[in-house]
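Supplementary Data S3. Sequence and structure tokens for construct A.
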Amino acid sequence: MLKLYTYTTVLVDLRFKIYWDSGRFGHEFPPVAFAAEVVTESIELFLQSLDMSCLDRIRATTRYTMYSFAEPINYEVERSFVWKGLAGGSKLSIRGLSQVEFENQLALMKKRRWQDSIRVEMAVEIKAGTELRNRACAEVTHQLDTKSWESE
């Protein structure tokens, strides 16, 4: 049976860092804001579609760089609702919200005419290509050289 889902466009404030070599090395990117089409039927589908939108945006951002990847090895994510115009941009973590609380937050965003956003903080582990492995070796060599100069 065909199931049709309800989609909503939300503003996403994405902050991400790419890791490689089992998290020993990493690079933090500047924040990116974009509009994402997400499924609002359930909290699980919402989080899944939000994560896929963010990973697609990260792939597009890193496509022509040494950080490009097809599929991440692993990723960790923290998501929260952020209300613009409130003191300090108040935020509420999505983790632990029930389905009813989640629906209430989406209804509140809709009443405020979607001026609020969803902040996604993501750490993505990728398989390092040749260029990244060479960079990691150069960083380790530089650290060793710096330590040897400091000890003399």
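Construct B, processed identically:
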Amino acid sequence: MISALPYPDSKVLSTNNYGMSLWGQTGKITAELPDGTTKHYFLTTANLGDTGHAMILGEYESLKAIHAVSPNIRLADMHKKSQSPTGKFGFHVTTCHAKLRQMTDCWEDSWAALCRKQLAHMIELEEVKHGEWPEFKIVCQLILDKVIPRLLEPLQSNGRSIKPCLVHGDLWDENTATDMATGEPFIFDAGSFYAHNEYEIRGSGMTENLLYSLRFDLGTAILIPCNQRQIVKENMIILCKKVFPNELACFAEKPG
């Protein structure tokens, strides 16, 4: 741990438990730098085998990418100043939503294609966790095959384009806090990748909001025992009714 500190010859003054984590342990390291000044570091550990390694590595690479474009970690700065290293959507490593691996370690020219891959991955994880539900599977397939292409492909067609922006990737109130010294807000526990900037704020309208919230809600359904699966299904039905009402009716009428 000492050898990992960024300043050589630093002296650790104290280590303490600090904050809380649902999936690991968090701590605070206070160190004295070679020039005599004091520096505080935040430490996260996760005893979850390969999953824990993916979580920690993903967060490290996410925060490193965020800090490179926005040292003060401001969403608008991240979205405006970031540049995808490939010009595509995706990321260079797997990042996680809580302890669930996201489909991020790939590069796609199409935002619709990456969004579909990510949602299909979460649907598969949810089915493994809770088992097959035929009615749910119907609306999931409609979302993947009909709704995503209809809503997202026009963003990159007929001369239109969207910039792959660096996003936090798991932004909610428990991943935000206020700096006690400055009073400024900051974010942490990132699971970043390059995406449509509206993904971060769940879209500008109700339809986009529902679509972009599905992956997060599926994660909740997998991780926390509740009725979230039913809520996800209801939101998918709302989307299908808005975008492809006839197809939804046809699927519902099919026997078996």
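Residues 49-69 form the longest helix (21 residues). The chain has a mean pLDDT of 89.
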